């Protein structure tokens, strides 16, 4: 199996860590290691994606972080406090949505939230109506507040669960697969909400088995496989890891003259040429590669390649190198494809 990057990711000082684990381990009965020696650092203010295929240990980790199950070994700190020892101090500052909200179908969305709020011993009953109304508005359920929860779509139920997590101001939100089972519209709604919450300064820790979801909403990510941490860091750095090790990204040319483009690119040493509609992609020869990060200006060689296309009469609509995706990172670091179906 390929090794993770040799350089450890830079971590923020301890006061700026929303979550930190050292050697966190969980063996379920029967001895199987669901989580194996996890060292995780989640910076405050980040939107942190906890990424891994089904069964890689994400939910087990979240349950340990929230003090719902005991670790077999290792330690965890949440908002600077040891868990589960400091649960009573920490958990009021944490909003959690784990494995879908427990709702009463025969109650309206508003009445469900009312019950959640009433179950919170620190919630002042005199201001309950205000809090419930604000949380419903926050997740866009104001208009549907009077509807019975059983008539809610899955996306609306997830949003109601988020509203419950948002009844009190939170420093950290922990969301376990918040878009699981949702249709594309429901997914978009939840992702937009996560972005809004993050913009307000809340740290968001969300698990997902969907790579593109992490790329769309997260600033940071950790990748899990079979209970072990494969890598963690900013999403940009994780992509750059793979980009650096390859030396360059893949060339993409958009043109109505694909056949001519293929010929010219081949003459200039571009290999593995593929055509899909008006997009031609290929591997650049080493000398034409951009030298460093994906945002750097293309060097002269790449510009020469573009000029050669234009000179040969190829009409170029777009020309550039694609940066590596998190999927590339996952495949490179684990030697496995990524299960997106489950
Ligand atoms: N209560 C349990 N008892 C025994 N084994 C368990 C238990 N819960 C989870 N496991 C096992 O531990 C491993 C990790 O499961 P976990 O649910 O943490 O993974 P996950 O990444 O959250 O996956 P999913 O997205 O499917 O929930 C799996 O092999 C799972 O079968």
From TrEMBL:
Pfam families: ABC_tran
UniProt KW keywords: ATP-binding, Nucleotide-binding, Transport
Molecular-function GO terms, alphabetical: ATP binding; ATP hydrolysis activity
Domain of life from the UniProt record: Bacteria
Start and end residues of each ABC transporter domain: 19-251
Similarity comment: family membership: Belongs to the ABC transporter superfamily.
Identification of the protein by name: ABC transporter ATP-binding protein
């Amino acid at each position: 199996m390929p090794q993770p990057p040799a350089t450890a990711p830079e971590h923020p000082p301890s006061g700026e860590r929303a979550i930190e684990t050292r050697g966190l381990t969980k063996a379920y009965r029967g001895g199987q290691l669901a989580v194996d020696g996890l060292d995780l650092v989640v910076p405050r203010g980040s939107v942190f994606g906890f990424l891994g295929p089904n069964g890689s240990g994400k939910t087990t980790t979240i349950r340990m972080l929230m003090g719902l199950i005991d670790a077999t070994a290792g330690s965890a700190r949440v908002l600077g406090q040891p868990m589960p020892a400091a649960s009573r101090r920490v958990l009021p500052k944490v909003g959690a949505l784990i494995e879908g909200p427990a709702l009463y179908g025969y109650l309206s969305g508003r009445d469900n939230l009312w019950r959640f709020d009433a179950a919170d011993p620190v919630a002042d009953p005199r201001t309950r109506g205000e809090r419930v109304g604000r949380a419903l508005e926050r997740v866009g359920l104001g208009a549907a507040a009077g509807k019975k929860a059983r008539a809610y779509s899955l996306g609306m139920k997830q949003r109601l669960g988020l509203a419950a997590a948002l009844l009190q101001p939170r420093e950290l939100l922990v969301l376990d697969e918040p878009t699981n089972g949702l249709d594309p519209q429901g997914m978009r709604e939840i992702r937009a909400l996560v972005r809004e919450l993050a913009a307000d300064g809340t740290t968001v820790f969300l698990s997902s088995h969907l790579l593109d979801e992490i790329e769309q909403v997260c600033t940071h990510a950790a990748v899990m496989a079979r209970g072990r941490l494969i890598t963690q860091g900013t999403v940009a750095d994780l992509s750059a890891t793979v980009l650096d090790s390859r030396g360059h990204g893949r060339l993409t040319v958009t043109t109505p003259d694909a056949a001519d483009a293929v010929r010219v690119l081949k003459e200039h040493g571009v290999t593995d040429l593929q055509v899909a509609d008006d997009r031609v992609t290929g591997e650049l020869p080493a000398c034409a590669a951009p030298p460093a990060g994906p945002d750097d200006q293309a060097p002269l060689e790449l510009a020469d390649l573009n000029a050669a296309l234009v000179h040969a009469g190829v009409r170029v609509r777009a020309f550039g190198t694609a940066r590596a995706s998190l999927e590339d990172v996952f495949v490179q670091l684990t030697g496995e494809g990524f299960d997106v179906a489950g």
